[in-house]
Amino acid sequence: MPDEQASSGRPLPALSQLNRPYWTSGAEGVWRLQQCPECERIIHPPALRCQFDHATPEWVPMSGRGTVESWTVNHHPFFPGIPTPYVIAFVNPVEDPRARVLTNLIDVAPEDVVVGMPVRVTFERGDDGTEGDTVHLPLFTPER
Ligand SMILES: [Zn+2]
Known about the structure:
The protein has one domain. With 144 residues, it is mainly β. The protein is built from one helix and nine strands. The chain is globular and about 40 Å long. Strands 1, 5, 6, 7, 8 and 9 form a six-stranded mixed β-sheet that branches. It has one helix at residues 20-24; strands at 4-5, 32-35, 42-43, 58-61, 65-74, 86-93, 101-105, 118-128, 134-142.
């Protein structure tokens, strides 16, 4: 099971029926993304239909491993609870590198981030979201 980080001042998502599994499955220590049962593509952000064949996606567990496709370093203090600088990144899950997840990299110095860097999911527990669900933000750390 991945480590769980303490809550920070990171803003939390508004949960919906469509995105709830993405934001809450970290409670089980599992990173889940949608997969198309027809073409087997990993689909993210969550969608009602696969954009390629219109099949209904299913939530499936990922290994939690991925690679950094691209990143940027934010220096502006948009949110008081998040110390700057911090890294905003696109991560590709190893199960389907065509998929792209927008996230933060933590426990890494911005100057150490490189394209293709292996990363692993970790979850930061947030406060209770809508309808009593607890948000577990999927964040990524360098794979060691
Ligand atoms: Zn499909």
